[in-house]
Each structure stands twice: as C-alpha cells, then as structure tokens.
Automatic annotation (TrEMBL):
Membrane-spanning segments: none
Family to which this protein belongs: Belongs to the GST superfamily.
One Gene Ontology term of the molecular function aspect: glutathione transferase activity
Pfam families xref list: GST_C (PF00043), GST_N_2 (PF13409)
Domain GST C-terminal intervals: 87-214
Name of protein: glutathione transferase
InterPro entries associated with the record: Glutathione-S-Trfase_C-like, Glutathione-S-Trfase_C_sf, Glutathione_S-Trfase, Glutathione_S-Trfase_N, GST_C, Thioredoxin-like_sf
Protein species of origin: Emericellopsis atlantica
Amino acid sequence: MLTVHHLQRGQSERIVWLCEELNIPYELKLYPRDPRTFMSPPELQALHPSKSAPIVQDGGITLAESGAIFEYILTKYGDGKLSVSPSADNYADYLYFLHFANGTLQPALLRARMATKMGLPPDDIGARLALNGMKKSLKLLNDRLSASQWLAGDEFTAADIMVVFSLTTMRLFFPYSLQEYQGILGFLQRVNKRDAYRSAIAKSDPGFQPPMSAEAPAQ
Ligand SMILES: N[C@@H](CCC(=O)N[C@@H](CS)C(=O)NCC(=O)O)C(=O)O
C-alpha cells in the first residue's frame, strides 16, 4: 500500500488531497515541524536524500518531489481520473498549469519572501525582480481563473490540486494578500467546497483551516 509522509503545514498536503480525490487506499504518516526551525524532523529526513516532504513509499520504491509523485500516483493508480488525455483539446492547458505551480508560482513566491525578509528597499533590482515575478504569476493565474472554472477548463484536475498550497498554507510563511485577485478567491471557494480537500486537511493537519480569504493572514 502507498504510504504518504506528510510534513504538517507543508506542500505534502497536496499528495494527501490527491489520494482523497482518487479515493485510493494509503497510509498517512504525520510529522510535525520543528517548532524552532520549522524544518522536518530527522526521521523524515532519513527517508530520502531530498530530506524534504512530500515523500511517498510504495513497495520497494521511495519517491520525493510533488510533481514526480503526482505523475507516479496518477499513472499507476489514477485510472485516467484527474488528468487530461493527450487527444483532448485542453491537454496543453492541463500540462501547463500542472507544471506552473511548482515551476513558476512557488519559486516566485519564495523569491519575493526572501526579498521581503531581507528588507531590501523597493528600488533594489533583486527586490523589484522578485516582486514583479510574484505579481506576474498571480495575475496570470487570476486571469485564467476569471475566465475558466478550473485551470485546465471545465473539469477539476490534478493541476488544480498542485497550485492550492501556494495560495493558502504557504501564506502562513509568507503572508501576502489576494485582495486584487478575485478570480483566485472564487477558485479557492470552489476548492473549499470539495469534500476530498476538506477531508485531506482534516487528516493531515487536524484543526487547521488553511487561509483562504483575501487578507494576508496575521503572523
Ligand atoms: N519542490 C519540492 C519542495 C519540497 C519542500 O520544500 N518541502 C518543504 C515542505 S513545504 C520541506 O520539507 N521543508 C522542510 C525541510 O526542508 O526540512 C516538492 O514540491 O516536493
């Protein structure tokens, strides 16, 4: 059986959510963050050279990296669900947004967080690049979600699961506002109505309500 190793308040919530949406059996192992450093505990780090979550195990396989884990689970256990067939008109949209989350949005947010934490002045070239990258990514997402119910089109797919962490739980670590992004806020409301999402959060971070409102969460 698949084992999902989840570092609480972290990106691995996506893997739990994916399993819940697919309704596949899995064992969930929870790891609280070190309260001082927010890093993963040694027992989780020992599982894979990446030393970071998500990590899944399946028989003799141990796999890290959200995107690789998504492909693994969708291909092996997905039975065609939550993905888009290469013959469909929206296949390229599906692929683009599946990779956009970790390829563009999450790195842009991390760069902006770094610039903010370093206290760089707004006219610093590094700060400008970082904040522009973040705005550009959020605008792209907002435009798409203002025109389309879900990222790949009319149907909910794995691409929607991949992006949500960066717009919700990530804001605990980098509290940014979504006030200007009504398309994203509407999308988050649709996400929050999904039983599989709520059940994934309840199992992976009991009692936690990921920030979904426009305001930047208080730190
Ligand atoms: N690109 C990786 C990023 C993994 C990652 O940075 N995970 C964070 C959790 S959000 C982590 O484990 N941080 C704690 C640590 O590195 O000790 C993925 O998507 O799997």
